[in-house]
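Cross-check.
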Amino acid sequence: MSGQVLQSGFLPARLGAPVETRLAWRHPAVLLACWHLAIIILSGIACRGLNPPAHAGHTQRELLVILGTGMLAVFLLHRRGLYGRIGEHPPQPWLSFLKPVLHAFSLMLLALLVWEGVAALWQGPVPDAILTNRNWLFAWAVTAPVLLLLSRDTAEAAVMRSAPKRAGRRAILLGNGEGAARLATFLACNDAVQIVGFLGFGGAVPAGADGWPVLCSLRAACAAIQASEADLVIVALPEAASHRIAAIMRRMSGMAVDIRLAPDTARFYKPDARVSSIGGLPFLHLQDKPFSDRDAVAKRAEDLVLGVPLLCLAAPLMLLVALAIRLDSPGPALFVQPRLGFNNSVIRVRKFRTMHGAATDEGGSRQAVRGDRRVTRVGRLLRRTSLDELPQLINVVGGSMSLVGPRPHALGTAAAGLPFETAAADYVSRHRVKPGLTGWAQVRGWRGETDTVEKLRRRVEHDLHYIAHWSVWFDLRILALTVTAVFRGEAY
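Predicted model, tokenized:
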């Protein structure tokens, strides 16, 4: 058998760099957004320089206005989806491009007028020295959009040239027989994807796949995905192997990976199925990652922007809580429990210990119930206020958890005596995103003990709704609802 046989999911060093470590800043959308931001800020500083140095226009407030307007304009361009259509033919209409920029400047001017009006009402007549010379503002509001429009085509062409030539998709090919051989020959000489592993079912490595790392089992392929060594699975199996395709789907349904079916197997077509092109060949979408690369970057940025300050603010309180736990009962202040996380991987979740040391249950086979005698006096207060979850901010900053997402469950938890993955058919689909400190199911009242199958299914239903409708604003809404839920003290 040609190729290098791998007994685990970890690929050779030259191919095994995690997908998430790719140079995300070289993405055309990121480069173009930086270009737009630079033009708006630099033109604002230049127009601001029209004021004499001693003029009231030279204040830190004007610099904040320039920076805020630039960030708002880029955000509105992103919300309109214009960064996702770079290189379109025909190009996007110039008016669609300018509208978000003009909206940003209009909001900025309106905000300044309201600010000065409120200041006049609150402090009385505003002295002439405080009133900003607005000439530079209007000059900037004309100059920046014109520069953006004039440089649009040149900037888009430049960022497309600077982007990596390869598509950047690291794929695992699953298949055998003549169909896999034809596909392997095509992909071997095509730069659309980079094949980082091949798994054959009962056959030799097809011609054209010489040099590809050969995986020994479907388990090894899943391990490669969990290690972020691949983010695309291409299935090249004949229609007669529908049972094997179904087995692949079951095994990978809980993983954040795109699965594409090669053209030969039309049996899996559905009325609403999507088809896309890879290297000029059509592939059927069997499964899509819940978050695009840009959405994943935005969610991680959200976790860091909010999580780091929250961890710093909570640190003194966490020290006091740890001291109270140690004084109340013997044992460590923290309880570390293995739970299922992203891509079905096991993560170590931190909590404040709320039970007596000898009664802690690392496997989670016995869930906490209302009035549980295992809970200490301090632990009862921590659970009611959800302060026992604060150490999970460390998980959030570290990257194994997110602020918002499906709650991670201990390995041995069950619903009415059934393992969670057996009690709810779509349970593993929760693991296609990072688990969260709080989630949609929790703020909607589905928290606490899952002693019935119905409770688990309703929780899973809410988690899947969150994954399907994720947005930054949805996360902020859930965080706000979490605060009110904590004050109600519904936990036990």
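Confidence is low (pLDDT under 50) at residues 1-25, 126-131. The chain has three domains: 4-21+165-289, 24-162, 294-488. Passed to J.P. for a second look.
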